[in-house]
Give the backbone structure.
Amino acid sequence: MKWQASAPSNIALIKYMGKRDATTNIPTNASLSYTLTDLRTTVELESSTGADSWEALIEDFTLSEAAISRFLKHLETLKSKFNYQGHFIVRSSNNFPTASGLASSASSFAALTTVAAQALAELTASEYPPIEVLADWSRQGSGSSCRSFFSPWSIWDAEGARSCTLPYPKLLHQVVLISHEEKAVSSSQAHRLVTSSPAFAGRPERAEQRLQALINAFHEQDWAQAYQLCWDEFQDMHQLFETCKNPFSYMTESTHRVLRDLQSYWNTQGDGPLVTMDAGPNIHLLYRPDQEDHANQIKDLIHYAPFS
Ligand code: PMV
């Protein structure tokens, strides 16, 4: 028997960085993300008589050994929730280039949780769990994946993840691809390392204040204010990386150059995209639907390998 599901990725504007509980991925602060409905992972499960294993769903798709074992460990956790002893072949792929440098753990874990719940509910004749429960289970595999269950906006705080109603339901997304190489410091390591930064002490308060201010800016449709808050937020997170005990940085010369170009674009035009960065060197841009001209101009301005 086979089951298949897909799930989207998401990009946080207020970042999840630092965990209160590392085993269950309880975040230090609330985060807010926009769901990237077009960037998806598909996961297929097939009942198997052997041990759980992973295969690529499409040609040329690969996962590192570490990623495969993390994925299978999450499947094990999900099976235990249904008291299921059987095994599966897990097949997965992303619809965005593997080498695009885009994080895929959010979409991967959300898709695996969804399809496993379908398979396990059917195989054990149990109820299919509500979406909040799926998000909660997914969080235990990859924190940020719990936000991918809700769209277009998702908020994740101490009570779990849920959708958030904001005035911009459809945004245009571009990525300035600075590097697609594997990161030297994974986001799991980053979550641990940042706690040693002197700036981490005030981080929950700063993130909380910025979250409220950003929600207000969106409600007031004050796009320039939203841009400033998103900018301050990713800089805040990257400052934590650069000021912890064993400092590290994802920012390259090219990252700095493109960020400067984006800032001067905003300064001259008085408008532009929301700019954010995850734990990596690439830059994410979000535009309102009426800003398509800006998106085209910026594409020309920064000469990046376009991917949207
Ligand atoms: O879900 P994780 O453990 O890969 O953490 C993701 C953390 C960031 O992408 C840097 C920020 C976020 O909120 O998505």
Observations:
- Helices lie at 65-81, 105-123, 131-141, 187-193, 203-219, 223-242, 253-269, 292-302.
- The pocket of PMV is lined by residues 12, 15-17, 31, 105, 142-144, 187-188, 191, 278-279 (CB under 6 Å).
- Residues 264 and 270 are 9 Å apart (CA to CA).
